[in-house]
């Protein structure tokens, strides 16, 4: 087809990030090693004897690293300025004696009750003006100066005390940073106003950015600014700025903590359990991670392979370093899990570039917010079946770390993601009937998963990045799936990427609003019509649509389609069942590159055939062929296969191979048990 034959242009050479951006393989903690460990709360245990028993069981299971310290500020500082490290000192010593390394979390959230009592500015004030008691985790106003002052002192005290301790392996910050609640205190309103003054300079500029000419919302003075309600109703521009403000508050705290780490323990990496996509607040990690992250780390609680693969890929960001699962599912969905499921997910993590799995949690909780949570040790202090399963994982990882794992990925495909766009596409309720019009809430994550799915099933490594903050010359293909708010930096970077020889695919519902979340008053896509060589301002609801891509017939309910009006672009595919057979896909030569536009939201049935037509011309090689539910990656000439389903799966292989994990000899076909894994070598 013309679509593919025309894409034979030169691409920029793959280039690495600047040295400060991510860790080189030579500087990995334990380069060429895999880590199995656990999360441990020594302050929950009954005394030295039980803790010593715990540590010996960790050692016997083959664990290497333990994450602890999180959620325990008042155990270290029971009263302001009065620190007590006696138990933690002893535990650190015992961990070292057992050969276990420690990721020490700075437990900045939740803040202690004594801190809330003495410094009420740390209390959350809800959008109706009510001051809330800190009755659950993360009900702390982290923008409060007293909170920050005391947190920095805690971090400074802890890192100085353990800087030379032989057990110390890495530092983590504020468990699940990004979770929590926004606050509406008068002090927060004033801080928001200060943030707006810095961003806009004048009230006149703020009025323009917030479209205050609509519905009598004009601001005459800065003091008339109010924090908009987080759960609506709008207006959208103000809500976006409010979420940006709170994102920066989270990032500022992470920067403060990393400054302490760099001062006191510069030889230890930052491996923090971040939660940038937390629903209540979240923050813009992908635009800022270089300021406080050494390795992407997260809590890994997968529900399905596709979303698990996408989220872990997003947490890796643009780094060449591996991913750390600082919290890891201890048994699969729910608290009880299924035998074999955690082992399967651990090997799935290796496919995604993971270096460590640390199950949450070591011991089952007797009280608190997770009192029914079952860990590796049951409530009666007996080891559960889960400990044996993770001991198996540790043994297998000890083998695999000598055979090409963790995998260093250099993906050639990137998918665009941004915090601003997530906010813009998850709008607060409108004032009319508490609804949001469907077209202006296109649902970014649904499109992102749909764009990712065919690549994922083809076992191709992908990066999920903020395309305005990365060197796009590292990639051959950049996909922009329903990025409704495509900021100026991203548009500028995309323009250069295509001009220099890159290929971009943009789907419908992209680049509709500017940096202030207002619709462009120019032809769409905003600021990129010349790059894509078209105008697309109209759209229609269609239902089932039919087209042909590279000989593949596509017939599916693709939802609304945009009316593409090419200027310099060529039509590569048309919808065969619409009046006039309107364009379904166009391609435009811009500079040395190509810009491809898809008239509908990203859907696997459409994106898969399109990608497959591009692979050869872009030098993108699909990974091993696998049946549905089985995923695979090659490492040092060996192939790791993971069956994520509850059914046996047969995988066609080339010739005879040895199964490193099963100890079996396979010829022509690999038989994977339900949740089964194997590493094949010649």
From TrEMBL:
Residues 412-620 form the Beta-galactosidase trimerisation domain. Residues 40-399 form the Glycoside hydrolase family 42 N-terminal domain. This is beta-galactosidase. Pfam families: Glyco_hydro_42, Glyco_hydro_42M. PANTHER family: BETA-GALACTOSIDASE GANA, BETA-GALACTOSIDASE YESZ. It catalyses: Hydrolysis of terminal non-reducing beta-D-galactose residues in beta-D-galactosides. It comes from the Bacteria. Its EC number is 3.2.1.23. It is an enzyme of class 3 (hydrolase). Belongs to the glycosyl hydrolase 42 family. Keywords: Glycosidase, Hydrolase, Metal-binding, Signal, Zinc. InterPro entries: Beta_galactosidase_Trimer, Class_I_gatase-like, GH, Glyco_hydro_42, Glyco_hydro_42_N. It comes from Telluria antibiotica. The keyword Hydrolase applies. Residues 1-21 form the signal peptide.
